[in-house]
Amino acid sequence: MGKVEGIIKSEIARLAKREVRKVSVPFGRDLRFLKSVVSQLRRTVLGLQRITTSQQKELEKGKMVLEAPPEEVKESRFSPRLIRSLRKHLGITQKELAILTGVTVGAAHLWESGQFKPSMKKKAVMVALRKLGRREVKKLLEGKGTQKPVKKISSRRRKRTKKARRK
């Protein structure tokens, strides 16, 4: 009887291991897949953290360059309504939008009216603006100096114009 008992025990152990393997192998595959996803996400987050810290440092210096990845720029859509809503969301005027994007006020107006579309470079700036909040945009505007200095006509020039009028 001892031999039969040993055979039955070994067979039960073999079948139990087989059943456990059926359940655990798919879990192992899922676990490996999820670990790879987590490591990819971790790398992405670290990259984004590096970018944000560099942008914050540049923002503090006042030399922040508004840029966005080319893939993101290609995917982005800017209708007149979206440009206007971005501007309103940031709490800036058309003039301030023009200063941030590096265009004239008229160009910003034409974008919002739908008569012209922004170039890829200007779209990249607006995609970067989407990611900023009101405070960051105000700091950027302060750094760029929103008020343009008024040109004064020199007294020498005024004298020439007065002389030219007399003649």
Q: How many beta-strand segments? A: 0
% residues in beta strands: under 5%
N→C terminal distance: 137 Å
Please give the CATH class of the largest domain: Mainly Alpha
Average pLDDT across residues?
Answer: 82
Can you walk me through this structure?
This protein is mainly alpha-helical and about 170 residues long. The chain has two domains: about 1-60; about 65-145, Orthogonal Bundle (434 Repressor (Amino-terminal Domain)), CATH 1.10.260.40. It contains eight helices and no strands. It is rod-shaped and about 100 Å long. The protein starts with a helix and ends with a helix.
Keywords, separated by commas or semicolons:
167 residues, mainly alpha, 434 Repressor (Amino-terminal Domain), 8 helices
Which secondary structure elements does this structure contain, and how are they paired or packed?
Blueprint (H helix, E strand, L loop, with lengths): L1 H60 L8 H6 L4 H11 L3 H8 L3 H9 L6 H11 L3 H11 L10 H12 L1
Helix pairs in contact: 4-5
Brief overview, please?
The protein is mostly helical and 167 residues long. The chain has helices spanning 2-61, 70-75, 80-90, 94-101, 105-113, 120-130, 134-144, 155-166. The protein has two domains: 1-61; 63-144, 434 Repressor (Amino-terminal Domain) (Orthogonal Bundle).
